[in-house]
Every structure is written in structure tokens, then in C-alpha cells.
Amino acid sequence: MNRVSLSEDVLISLGLQDNVEFIRFSLVRRVEHFLLIISFVALAATGLPQKFNAADWAQWMLTAMGGIETTRWLHHFFAIVFIMEGIFHVVYAFYGLLRRRVGLEMLPAWKDVRAFQHMALYFIGKRQAMPKFGRYDYRQKFEYFAMVWGWLLMAATGLIMWQPTWATNYLPGILIPVGKMLHGWEAVLAVLSIVIWHGYHVIFHPDVFPVDSSIFSGRISRMRMINEHPLEFEEAVGRPAIVEGLKRG
Predict the structure, then answer these.
(1) What is the SS3 assignment for 100?
(2) How many CB atoms lie within 10 A of CB 219?
(3) Is residue 105 over pLDDT 60?
(4) Can you name the residues that pair with 130 across neighbouring β-strands?
(5) Where are the domains of the chain?
(6) Side-chain-side CA neighbours of residue 165 (13 Å)
(7) What is the CA radius of gyration of the chain?
(8) Nearest Cα residue to 51 out of 191, 151, 147
């Protein structure tokens, strides 16, 4: 039987799928992610043409956005949004910890090293099952802290480039050209990472194609919880995440 051809109602009636959902992201986190998408795309669209301004495509984009001065103004505006969103994220995270509304699930731990080793062995056929993950796996943690590092670097170098006179009152002048180089190539790295790594996992991965909507709806299906976050599922419902045909160890 081709499961893909069946409607959701039929799958539910056959017990092959259910309509139970779990809350994965709060409204605050969803708004944060939306602002991050908007600011990141806008910064890439206004920043990369400035870095590669000699290219024909860059000149076309600069002209389409109203010229270099307008492009710089837009870049600065969305940079402020990007920086403020990051500050809010940190403050809100500390508030959540103090109020015990959130835990430390996103912090790397030794179990992530073991899970990475387990996954590598699984891919080469040395393990029969994939490792079991909780709320976040080591790949998501790596991507998150890459984003944090990128935010810190882009904010610091961006402010130095934006206010070079003020910056050189307190910092060595060599940081101006160094900051410009770091800012530009970190932007290229960030865009490539989002397009290739993050884009695949939230759009093109077979389990979520055509898009992972959980960050927009805030909800995740029971089956995805069992498949992707079995340890979190077991903690939430108080029973093992055992599903027929699911091969996880």
C-alpha cells in the first residue's frame, strides 16, 4: 500500500497516523524566528551587493534598491533589528531560566559527543539504529551556536565599520580593515550555511518537505516527536516511544 497516496483522514482511521500534536515553540520564539528571517534576508540582500560591488549582478541589485546610499540605510536599519532581536533572545532566555520556564536543553553536553559518534557509526553500518534524541540533537545545537557566534561577530564588526571614528577612539585602527574582512566573509559563510545546511533540513528533507511548518505553527505532530525527539516524547507522556517499524535504539 502506498501510504503517500492516502488522505490524512484515511491514515488516521487505519491507525497509521494521528492528529495529536505537541507544542514545540511558544509565540515569543515564533515571532523571534520571523524577525530573524526578515532581518537576515534583508541584510544578505543589502550587504552582499556592497561586498561584491564590481559584479554586474551586484550593480543591478544596488540600482534596484535605489542606489548605494539607500542600500546602506536599509542595511543599517535591519542591522539594528538583527542586533536588538539577539539582545532580546539572550535576555528572554535568562528570564526563562530564572523563572524556570525553560531548561538548558540547548547547551552542548557530553551526550552530544556520544550521539555524534553513534550517528557516524550508524551511517557506516556499525550500528543498527540511530541514536535517540531529546528536545534538540547535536546538529541543532551546533547550528544554534554557530548562529550565536555569527551574531556576535557580525554585530561587533558591523558597529566598527558603521562608526569607525568612534571605534578607533578605543580600539586599534587595524581593526577597521580586519573588521571589514571578517564581516564580509562571515556574511558569505552565513548565507551558504543557511541555504545549504538549514535550507535542506527545513525544506528539502524528506520528512518535512515542502517545509517544516513547526516554527510557524508552534506545533509538531506526534509521529515527528516519536521519530525525531523520542526522549522528549517519553518524558512528556511517561511511556516508551515505541512505534511499529520505527528503528531507533
Answers:
(1) coil
(2) 13
(3) yes
(4) 248
(5) 27-103
(6) 0
(7) 22
(8) 191
